[in-house]
Amino acid sequence: MKRGLKGLSVIVTLAMLLILLGGALVTKTGSGDGCGDSWPLCNGELIPSNITFELVIELSHRLVSGASGILVLLLCVWAWIALGHIREVRPLAFISFFFLVLQALIGAAAVMWGQSDAVLALHFGISLISFASVLLLTLIIFEVDKKFDADSVVIGSTMKKHIYGSILYTYVVVYTGALVRHKEASLACPDIPFCSNAAGWLPGDINQWIQMGHRTAATLIFVWILIAFIHAFKHYRDQKNIYYSWLIALVLVTMQAISGMLVVVTRLNLGLALAHALIISLLFGVLSYLTLLATRSKRTK
């Protein structure tokens, strides 16, 4: 039974990543209207007759999301029954499924009635919460036989502030990035690092403000994670899960910054843009794991 639950949890975690990338692909290819304004049918048909590139992208995303929803529900029920005695399992099971359903409903509402760019930008962030919850649920499932041991950590108040603050701020950065995509402001400032075409080096219109706001927010999260890693290097090298989590976070945030710049330089290369979405998802997952550790730490250093 444990082996089956572990296998399912890994499959569901990967499926949630596919949902995140699929949603990013839909946005970046402009395929949101690939099935017209009908949902869950495609152009009012169960089997579409007029196949287009946008339709294939949108329909594939819907099918993956639907299949993943069934798998997430199965994982949540199974984990609830088998491991419900563990403190975090039931809340994470509920959050995983609830936010997956919520992102599906927002997506359906956007198809049928349309939504503002500000609301659509929430879609990726909501999916990210569902992914992170499934990831933590997977780690807890493996933790049962001590492959992941989150109870042995001792975290001080300074480190806890870094953990809680950075994950909340990273979510804000994610939202600003999603807003850039939905406002089609990715090339509003085609130069790096500033809007050199703007008077006085300041953004000249709303799209440039959105783009530069995201760049500024992304720079600050890089600095924050670097500071947190230095703190971990000085005080937590004996606690490998803390130290290596921050090291991985630093590598990921560096890759995120580089991929973001390359997206602009290459004028929205699709592969780089999807890599950008993947890296921020993995970074949020690592910070979520650190948050789990922080909530379990009873003592301080």
Automatic annotation (TrEMBL):
Protein species of origin: Priestia veravalensis
Upper taxonomic lineage: Bacteria, Bacillati, Bacillota, Bacilli, Bacillales
E.C. code: 1.17.99.9
Binding site for heme: H214, H276
Record function comment: Catalyzes the conversion of heme O to heme A by two successive hydroxylations of the methyl group at C8. The first hydroxylation forms heme I, the second hydroxylation results in an unstable dihydroxymethyl group, which spontaneously dehydrates, resulting in the formyl group of heme A.
Cofactor requirements of the protein: heme b
Protein name as it appears in the record: Heme A synthase
Cellular component annotations (GO), alphabetically ordered: plasma membrane
Reactions listed under catalytic activity: Fe(II)-heme o + 2 A + H2O = Fe(II)-heme a + 2 AH2
Transmembrane in keyword set: yes
Subcellular location, record wording: Cell membrane; Membrane
Family the UniProt entry places it in: Belongs to the COX15/CtaA family. Type 1 subfamily.
Designated gene of the protein: ctaA
